[in-house]
Amino acid sequence: MRCKNCNVEIACKSSVCPLCHKPLVSDGEVPFPTPATKKILMGKFSLAYLVIAVIANIVCITLNFVLTPKILWCVPVLVSFIYVYYFVSVTVLAKRGFHKRILGQALILTAIFAAIKLAIGGNHWIFISWLPAVYLVSDLLMLIFIFKKKNEASKYIATLLLLCIFGAIPCISAYVFDLSVKLPSIIATSVSAAIFIICLIVCRKTIIHELKKVFNL
Amino acid sequence: MKYSWYRLDNSAIMYQMVLTPRAQSLFRMGVKLKSPVVPSALKCAVDKAFLRHPFFKSELKRGFFRPYLDENKLPFIIEEDDGVLLKLLDFSSNNRYLLRVSYFGNRFFIDYFHGLCDGTGALEFLKTVAFYYFDALGIPFPDKNILTLSSSPSEEETEDAFTKYYRKPELGKGINSMAGGQAFHVRGKNFSSTGYGLIQANVSTSALLDAAHRLNCSVTVFLTALILASVAEAHVKGVPKHNLTAFVPINLRKRFPSKTLGNFTVFAKIIIPKDCPLDFESLVPVVKKLLEEQLGEREVILKLGFTSLMSKMPLFKFMPLFIKGFISRIGRTLSTPKQTFILSNMGKIDIGENEVIDEFLFNLNCNKKTPDNVGVLSYGDKTLISFTRKIVSTEIERIFCKKLASLCGEVKVISNFREECNAL
Ligand SMILES: [Zn+2]
Question: Quick one: average pLDDT of B330-337?
Fold first, then answer.
C-alpha cells in the first residue's frame, strides 16, 4: 500500500502511514510484536519509603534533642531505616549473587553496630555478642554456598577471602573498645583466619588466577 | 584456544563505566529469513557460534583497575521478541550474558552490549549464527566470508586493537578539538518508558549508488547530507544556535591490519558551519569535504590516540575502577550533546548467494541527548536505513523518506509503531 502523501510504499500491516500518520489500507506483514506494558512498582515503594523515613526521622531527632539530648537514640532509628531499605532493595529484591548479599549484609550490619556504639557509647552488648555472631554466621553461610556451587567455586573465592579479611573487625574492635568479654570476638576472627589460611593453601592456583584478572596483570 | 578471560578494550571500558541498570549501550543486528524462524534450530546455532566465538560467551566483571570479560559457564537462553526495541539486558534473568538472541516471525535478532564489540564484530557473530542455523535445519548454505568451526578462534580476534596500534598523538590543539563543542540537539516529546521507535526504509542499493554517483559522492556522504537536511527542515528555524553535527563511525580495521571482534571504531565528526545553507544539494559537497578531512591519516591517529589516552596515562591507568566510573558518570551527566545524530554505515554484506536470507537488520541505540540515530547496511540489492528514535515525532524520517524516494525511486517503509502502543 502506498502513502501518496509521503510517496513511499508501506511494507507492513498498518491502518496509518508510519511517517505522516494519515490513514491508509494495508495488508502487509506484522514485522514486530506489540509490547505489553507493565507498571514499575519499585520506584513508588522507594518514594513512599523515603517520605515516611524523612518524616519519622525529623520527629525522632526533634524529640531526642528536646527530651534526652545526652543520649543520641535517634541515630539507631536513622540507621534502622537505612538498614530496612538496604535489606529490601538490595538483599531481597536485587537479583545479585548470594555471596555478594552475604558480604553486603555483614558490612552494613558492622556499619550499623559501629554507628550505634559511637552514638550511645558504653560497653555495649552489640559489640560483644552480635558482631562476632554476624561474622560467624556469614562465614558459615558462605562456606555452605560455595560447597553447594563447588563446580564454579573459583567465582566466589574472592568474596570469601574478602569476608575473611573483614572477619578481623570483631577482634580489632574488642581490643580498641576494650570490651569486657572478648572471647566471642576472638573466636569469630579465628574462624575467619582459619578459613583464609586453608583457602590460601588449598586454592593457591585459583587465587593467583583470579588476582591476575582483577588487577589486569 | 582454551577460554580464559579477556582484557576489555579502551572504548569498551568507557561503555562499562557508564553502565547503569537504566542505561546500557545496546545495538541490534538481525536477519530476516524467507520462512519463519525455528527456535530450536536457533538455540542450537547460537551454542555452536559460541564454540567458534568463545569471546561472546562471556560476562562482565569488575577488576580493581579495569573491567574484564570472564567465561560464562551458565546456559544461554533465547527468547521470543516482546516488541520492546533494545530493551535493557536483565543480567539476572539472562544468566549475565552481554547479548540477547530473540526471534519473531521470519526475523531473529541479536542485541549486543557495545562494551563487548562493535558492529563489525557483531556482524561476524551474526553470520556464524545464521550459518549454523541453516546447518541445524539441514539447508545447504555457503560459508563465504563466514567464520565457522572449520577455523579455530585466533588470539588476534580478541586483541585490544586500540592498545596494539596506539601511536602517541601530538598533544595540545589536536586533543582539544577531539572533545568537540556543543551540537544542535533534536528536541521533542520522548517516549516515557523503555523501547525505541523504529522506522526502516528499504531502497534499492543500485539506485542509491547511482544517485550518490550522480552527485559525485559516496553513499555515506549522500545519506549523511540527506539526514542533516531532514533534521534542518524538521527542527531548525533560522540560523541554528549550535552546529548541526553528524558522527560517523570509522572502522579502523580498514586502516590497520586487525582482526579483532571487539571494538575498533572511532568517530568522524561532521560539524556543519552555522552559515552553511542547510538544503540537501548544498550540504553534499560540505559533508564530502569534512568527511575527507576526518578520514585523513593524521586525524585518524589523533582519534585513536585520544581513545587510548585513558589506558596510557598513569593517573588513569592506576586509578581504581569505581573512581573512574564515578568521574565518567558525572562527566556524562554534565556534558552537553556533542552530536545531533549518529549515522553508522556497515556497508555491503557479502556472503555469496543464497535463497534463504531476505535481509540483514541493524538498529542503533539512542538516548535523550541524541534521540534519533541511523544504522545502514546493504545486502544484495537492498539497502536498509533504520532510524531508531527516542522521540515520538517521525518528522525527520518523513522528510528523509520523501526526499529519498524522489532521488532513488521506490522506498519501502516499515515501522514498529512505538508511538501507538500503550507504553507511550
Ligand atoms: Zn505518509
Answer: 76
Owning domain of residue B279: 176-420
Q: Smallest Cβ distance to A36: which of B82, B414, B417?
A: B82
Domain extent for A7? 1-33
Domain shared by B369 and B396, yes or no: yes
CA nearest neighbour of B218 among B267, B296, B125, B285: B285
* Same domain, residue pair B77 and B138: yes
Residues A20 and A119 in one domain: no
- Give the residue from B133, B163, B193 where a domain finishes: B163
Q: What is the pLDDT of residues A101-113, one digit of tens each?
A: 899 999 999 988 8
| pLDDT tier at A95, thresholds 50, 70, 90 | low
How confident is the model at residue B348, as a pLDDT? 94
Mutate to test the interface with A, among B32, B417, B419 (most CBs of A within 10 A): B417
Burial of A40 (0-12, 13-18, 19+ CB in 10 A): exposed
Total domain count, chain B: 2
Domain of residue B389, CATH code? 3.30.559.30
CB of A37 within 8 Å of a chain B CB? The answer is: yes
pLDDT tens digits, B78-114: 999 998 999 988 887 888 899 999 999 999 999 999 9
- Shared domain for B109 and B220, answered yes or no, is no
Closest residue in B to A18 (Cα) is B415
**Same structural domain, A110 and A169:** yes
| B201 and B331 belong to one structural domain | yes
The C-alpha angle with vertex A54 and arms to A48 and A58, in degrees rounded to 5, equals: 150
ipTM reported for the complex, 2 dp: 0.79
Q: Are strands B99-104 and B107-113 parallel, antiparallel or unpaired?
A: antiparallel
Among chain A residues, CA nearest to B63? A214
> What is the C-alpha to C-alpha distance for residues B147 and B402, in angstroms, rounded to an integer?
39
The x, y and z cell numbers of residue B181, run together, are: 563543542
Q: Which of residues 6-35 of B touch A (CB under 8 A)?
A: 7
Q: Which helix (H) or strand (E) holds B144?
A: none
- Say if the Cβ atoms of A30 and B105 lie within 8 Å: yes
**What rounded mean pLDDT belongs to chain A?**
84
